[in-house]
Amino acid sequence: MNTKLATMAHRGLTLPEPTRKEIRRTGIFSRATLQLVHQQQSERWALRGEEAGGAVASLGHYAGFTSVDGRPLAWMQRIQNFMPNGIHAVVIAPELCRVEMFRYENTYDVLITKHTLSKPQQGTKPQIDSSIVFFRRAGALATELWGKDSAFRGGAVPRFFKKNGEEELPPHAFIDALLKVTEAVCCLGCKHSHLLEVGSSMRQEAMVTV
């Protein structure tokens, strides 16, 4: 893996500065970075991620999380924000996949990355091992899921193509996650999590308001 791809695997999609500036201007907040945390009670290291993002009519940006085999993960903490298109939930897990998407009008970029922890040596922290599962730029979806075609949200994904014109299909295990993150980047004023779910052991936990 070259340096640019290795950086994306660890940090998330690379976007031009004018694009990042426009995302900030719209008020969309989506931080794809992961943190290494130590859980003292269980004496283990884990990964902490923040599911966040949303959309305005012209663009959307979202980063969410699944298990390494594409199944839903339970959030550790749900966060309710006064401002939309921000942080929606927090997940802590020993391994996970990050599903990130950026939309400008009908054009979509997607990056799915896998993150695990190396076995630590005595007295040292583990390293975060990151790899790319699926990455494509400039996917196309004519359906206006943020507007007149909003009834189809959750049932459509962009189509991605190779340079030779052949379609590049994502891994089957992540189709459901791609449906959800496509919905998320078309969710105007988003105030809820699209990928992380309530776990059975968490249904009675209080909401956290910020």
What radius of gyration results from the CA coordinates?
17 Å
Unreliable sequence segments? 200-210
Output the number of helix runs. 3
In total, the number of strands is: 9
Helix and strand run: HHEEEEEEEEHE
Largest sheet: 9 strands, mixed
Mean of residue pLDDT values: 90
Q: Helix amount, in percent? A: 10-25%
* Beta-strand percent range: 25-35%
Class based on secondary structure composition and strand pairing: alpha+beta
Total domain count: 1
Sum up the overall morphology in one term: globular
Span of the ends, CA to CA: 39 Å
Summarize the structure in words.
There is one protein chain. With 210 residues, this protein is an alpha+beta fold. The chain has one domain (3-202). It has helices at 3-11, 17-26, 175-184, and strands at residues 35-39, 44-55, 59-66, 77-80, 87-93, 96-104, 107-117, 128-140, 208-209. Strands 1, 2, 3, 4, 5, 6, 7, 8 and 9 form a nine-stranded mixed beta sheet that branches. It starts with a helix and ends with a strand. Residues 200-210 have low confidence and may be disordered.
Question: Which terms summarize this structure?
Answer:
210 residues; 9 strands; alpha+beta; disordered C terminus; 14% helix; 9-stranded mixed β-sheet; globular
Lay out the secondary structure.
Layout: H1 3-11, H2 17-26, E1 35-39, E2 44-55, E3 59-66, E4 77-80, E5 87-93, E6 96-104, E7 107-117, E8 128-140, H3 175-184, E9 208-209
Parallel strand pairs: 4-9
Antiparallel strand pairs: 1-2, 2-3, 2-5, 3-6, 4-5, 6-7, 7-8
